[in-house]
């Protein structure tokens, strides 16, 4: 088994362990992060209804920047997600880092979302 496959299996195991305890509801939805090699994606999800309330990513047309895979692109995603959440009436969320370490791009996205007004 190659190193990247093993790394992803370990992340999936950490993710399943955390998802047992993290649940987003209508009063406090879940902010989940997905990090690929080139892009960042973030969603605010109501798990009880199974509905995505707000989302942002580096793949959007207005964010086709050169730094999409870097911390700067992740910070832009966090700011945009916080704006969309506030327009949807969401102020507090549960942060689900999805098995990723709270470091680098994930940390940049979270801090930018906090600066944008989300509380977690």
Helix-strand pattern: HEEEHEH
Give the radius of gyration. 14 Å
Mean pLDDT reading: 90
Quote the beta fraction. 15-25%
The N- to C-terminal Cα distance equals 37 Å
Secondary structure layout plus pairing:
Layout: H1 3-19, E1 30-35, E2 40-46, E3 51-57, H2 71-87, E4 94-96, H3 105-115
Parallel strand pairs: 1-4
Antiparallel strand pairs: 1-2, 2-3
Helix pairs in contact: 2-3
How would you describe this structure to a colleague?
- This protein has 120 residues and is α+β, with helices and mostly antiparallel strands.
- It has one domain: Nucleotidyltransferase, domain 5 (2-Layer Sandwich), CATH 3.30.420.
- It contains three helices and four strands.
Key terms:
about 120 residues, alpha+beta, Nucleotidyltransferase, domain 5, 4-stranded mixed sheet, globular
Summarize the structure.
This protein is an alpha+beta fold.
